[in-house]
Design brief:
There is one protein chain. The protein has 395 residues and is an alpha/beta fold. It has a domain of 272 residues. 33% of the residues lie in helices and 23% in strands. The protein has 10 helices and 18 strands. A 10-stranded mixed beta sheet has the order 5-4-2-6-9-18-17-16-13-14, sandwiched between helices. A 4-stranded antiparallel beta sheet has the order 12-11-10-15, sandwiched between helices. Helix 2 crosses helix 10 and helix 3 packs across helix 5.
């Protein structure tokens, strides 16, 4: 009798657990649906939108949607339309809806109307990738791109109006003009060293189709036609076209760059103490008299790698997240492609999705960029927006 009762109890318990699991997404969606919208007007600038998926800013829209931040009292953000920049159309046609259209008076008004500004990507669109002519891994002229004088003026006005400003790689490197870059550096207290970099899982040109042709060509031009690399590693590229390669085992003890968070980053922004990063980054020098570094990138080199970097003045540790938070304004600079992650908006419609983030990526795969979104981008940007929203005085 007791045995039969136990079997029934276990069976009932298992059925209850299964029912809860089946209903959980429904309840998560209902809770999200019933959560009040919070108006937060963000001017999103994205100049690198090859398709209407908007990969360069969809990560930001994920956070906006999950947190129910809205562009008006009633309307949530639409990642296909609610940004300034490049808008792809059919048959190689496009529309330009950047801040370059605005005169000073309109930019002044936008800086009053907007609560925050975020340049997710200013790199732009290049002719060979848009018109699909030639090698899309080669350099070509721009169709549209670079941080413009109007973009910078708007950011400066946002600063004057004590607003939140977020910018990230690539708004400083080419095709941004040297004069705009210099004025930005002076305005916000960071200086680009001229170096950008990226991890590649293979330097074998016969196997890795992600290797830019111009990178290999420039290295060969500087080393008498030699390209002696086959393993994984990190490539550094300077604005003057110099290329430095660190190859795994040959120069590197650990092949991937790592992002290391400060105590503030860990305890306030929910960042892990250490995690890998496998995409593009830049190397900047912050003015620490009014900015501080929330997280750094580190390159784990052996003695040979250390000497190679020293020849070019490239540091092994450099800022990943630079911050200015004060009564005057709030500023964040992300020294990498933080917003470029392969995520979709679907999961943002379920309240509490971040608690189940371990289901969203493969933790055993070091090149899984979804992990970067869930471990770094989502908690970081969610905290930034929620912190800032609490400071706003709403009628």
């Amino acid at each position: 009798m007791a045995s039969a009762f136990l079997k029934i109890s276990i069976g009932s318990f298992l059925r209850a657990i299964i029912l809860i699991l089946l209903l959980l997404p429904v309840w998560m969606f209902i809770i999200w649906l019933c959560t009040d919208k919070r108006k937060l007007v963000v001017a999103i600038i994205d100049k690198t939108v090859l398709t209407n998926k908007g990969q360069e800013h969809v990560s930001f829209n994920w956070v906006l949607n999950q947190e129910k931040f809205s562009k008006t009292e009633t309307a949530l953000y639409d990642h296909k339309n609610d940004y300034f920049g490049f808008f792809p159309l059919a048959k190689e046609k496009f529309q330009l809806k950047g801040l370059e259209r605005f005169n000073t008076a309109r930019l002044d008004q936008l800086s009053i109307d907007a609560d925050a500004a975020y340049i997710t990507d200013a790199y732009g669109i290049y002719k060979n990738e848009w018109y699909q002519e030639g090698d899309d891994k080669e350099r070509s002229g721009t169709v549209y791109g670079g941080m413009s004088r109007q973009d910078l003026y708007f950011l400066q006005q946002m600063r004057a109006n004590h607003k939140l400003i977020i910018t990230e790689f690539n708004c400083l490197a080419s095709p941004t003009s040297p004069t705009v870059r210099s004025d930005y550096e002076i305005s916000f207290g960071i200086k680009w060293t001229g170096w950008i970099g990226r991890y590649f899982n293979s330097f074998d040109t016969t196997k890795n189709k992600e290797l830019p042709s111009w990178l290999v060509k420039n290295y060969k031009n500087q080393h008498k036609g030699a390209w002696p690399f086959l393993k994984s590693g990190i490539a550094f590229v300077n604005s003057d076209d110099r290329v430095v390669i660190l190859e795994n085992k040959n120069h590197l003890r650990k092949e991937l760059p790592y992002l290391n968070s400060s105590e503030e980053g860990q305890y306030h922004y929910g960042l892990p103490k250490k995690t890998f990063y496998s995409f593009w980054f830049d190397i900047i020098q912050p003015d620490t008299s009014f900015n501080h570094v929330l997280a750094t990138f580190s390159i784990d080199v052996n003695e040979k790698g250390k000497k190679e970097l020293a020849k070019y003045g490239i540091p092994t540790i450099f800022p990943a997240i630079t911050v200015h938070i004060n009564r005057d304004y709030r500023f964040f600079y992300f020294s990498a492609d933080f917003a470029d992650n392969p995520v979709t908006l679907t999961s943002s419609y379920f309240k509490g999705t971040p608690y189940f983030n371990w289901l969203m990526y493969n933790n055993r795969e070091p090149l899984e960029r979804k992990a970067f979104f869930w471990k770094i981008y989502q908690p970081l940007v969610t905290t930034i927006l929620n912190d800032y929203y609490k400071t706003l005085k709403r009628p």
